[in-house]
Task: inverse folding
């Protein structure tokens, strides 16, 4: 039996993108389950007519728990493989299908199209950010995540190992922990140009622009390094083939 596959899409303040993302996912993966979690302060998404509500499983959360809610969902539901797409990342059906293929071929690590590298440069540890358009090993992935249910469960176990009393405490670093929750570091794939919503860096909409966001992620990175759970690379090693 082929592994089961589900797509999870979270909405916060970009309801205009959800229908487009869901349609692309359905075209790419006709047999996949599609989950949409709405964590907005209002019901603007549910009022939209460009979302095929008959084709998705919809839930409106009472409380916004951030993007990290996708991990316990994937850990609890009985699907082998998952693709999570941020609501500002507009992949084509072909890109989604190819990413699902990468996960099917190598299910014991996370896969994506956008990531970061933690690099040791002259004794200092720095992040090389917004890496995309390349086939390379990453320290962490951002924007889009193809992973297994086992990796979601391992991410929750890793958060406990890092000292978080509950998954909710992980906050806006769920992507870091999910990326590091497998024996192999995650892979970034060059699937062509990645279209982003113009609001991807707009204050008040883009979560990464919120106060304390970067500081929290630095602290989580320190914990991952102490636990030897995150890959650290030499500068320019991304030119090598993935391994």
Result:
């Amino acid at each position: 039996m082929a592994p089961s596959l589900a797509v999870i899409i979270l909405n916060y303040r970009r309801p205009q993108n959800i229908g487009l993302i869901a349609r692309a996912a359905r075209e790419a993966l006709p047999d996949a389950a599609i989950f949409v979690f709405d964590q907005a302060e209002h019901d603007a998404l549910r009022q939209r007519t460009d979302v095929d509500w008959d084709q998705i499983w919809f839930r409106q959360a009472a409380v916004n728990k951030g993007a990290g809610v996708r991990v316990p969902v994937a850990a609890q539901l009985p699907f082998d493989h998952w693709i999570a797409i941020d609501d500002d990342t507009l992949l084509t059906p072909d890109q989604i299908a190819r990413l699902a293929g990468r996960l099917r071929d190598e299910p014991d690590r996370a896969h994506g199209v956008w990531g970061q590298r933690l690099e040791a440069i002259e004794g200092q540890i720095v992040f090389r950010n917004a890496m995309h358009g390349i086939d390379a090993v990453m320290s962490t992935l951002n924007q889009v995540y193809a992973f297994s249910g086992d990796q979601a469960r391992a991410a929750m176990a890793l958060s406990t190992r890092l000292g978080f009393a509950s998954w909710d405490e992980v906050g806006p670093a769920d992507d870091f922990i999910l990326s590091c929750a497998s024996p192999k570091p995650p892979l970034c794939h060059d699937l062509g140009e990645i279209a982003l919503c113009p609001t991807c860096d707009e204050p008040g909409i883009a979560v990464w622009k919120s106060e304390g966001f970067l500081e929290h992620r630095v602290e989580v990175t320190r914990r991952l390094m102490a636990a030897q759970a995150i890959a650290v690379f030499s500068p320019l090693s991304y030119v090598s083939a993935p391994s």
Q: What stands out?
A: The radius of gyration is 17 Å. The first helix runs from residue 15 to 28. The chain has a mean pLDDT of 93. The domain at 5-237 is CATH 3.90.550.10 (Spore Coat Polysaccharide Biosynthesis Protein SpsA; Chain A).
